[in-house]
Amino acid sequence: MLGRSRLRIPEPGELSRGQAVVAWRFWGVGESDDGEYRLQSPFRATVWEPGTPFAATCLSPQLTLGPLRHRHQAPDPGCRCGVYGGTYRELRTFLYSNLVRPSSTPVLGRVSIWGVVLEDESSSWRGSFGYPERLLVPTLLRNAFRVARDLEAYGVPVTMLDLQDMFSALHPAGRPGLTVR
Ligand SMILES: [Zn+2]
User: 150, 36 in Cβ contact below 8 A?
Assistant: First the structure.
């Protein structure tokens, strides 16, 4: 699953924000202290703040299974840390096999990834920094319209995705409801 990783840009090069890789991913949403919906990393509930690049950190004691159990900057080739993004096909396949109930519906979208960017063999990327590039809010999501309104705080295009679009976008045999690449 982890696979080997290679540096996309030879050391000491890093991608600037203007050179960012743009990839598909999904986010969870949660309410902030002041009652606004915000993006979260799906498996950690770490908040992505509007207007601020999300900086990846490593939780290597929990995440690293191999011998590379040392502190490092995220991402690290021997670890799983970093801001994730992948191809549309990967996102679709993952969601199709993991979406079991509407309450688990995530916000879909594209993310810019920059800094040190590693490309995994499965053509997904892990990088130091990330920021949403566009967001798609499924109407299946609880309070979807409020979520979409609040997510406009990120300053990127926010689009509602109705049930049919969602199905078409995610079903492998379905008619693509979105521009894919
Ligand atoms: Zn790590």
Answer: yes
Give me the residues near ligand 1 (ion), CB cutoff below 5 Å.
58, 60, 76, 79, 81
In the chain, how many domains are there?
Answer: 1
pTM: 0.80
Closest CA to 4 of 130, 114, 118: 118
Q: Give me the phi and psi of 93, to 5 degrees please.
A: -65, -45
Cα gap 169→166, rounded to integer Å: 5
In-domain check, residue 175: no
Determine the distance separating the centroid of ligand 1 and the alpha carbon of 111, expressed in angstroms. Answer: 20
- For 55-87, the pLDDT digits (tens) are 999 876 554 455 555 678 899 888 888 999 999
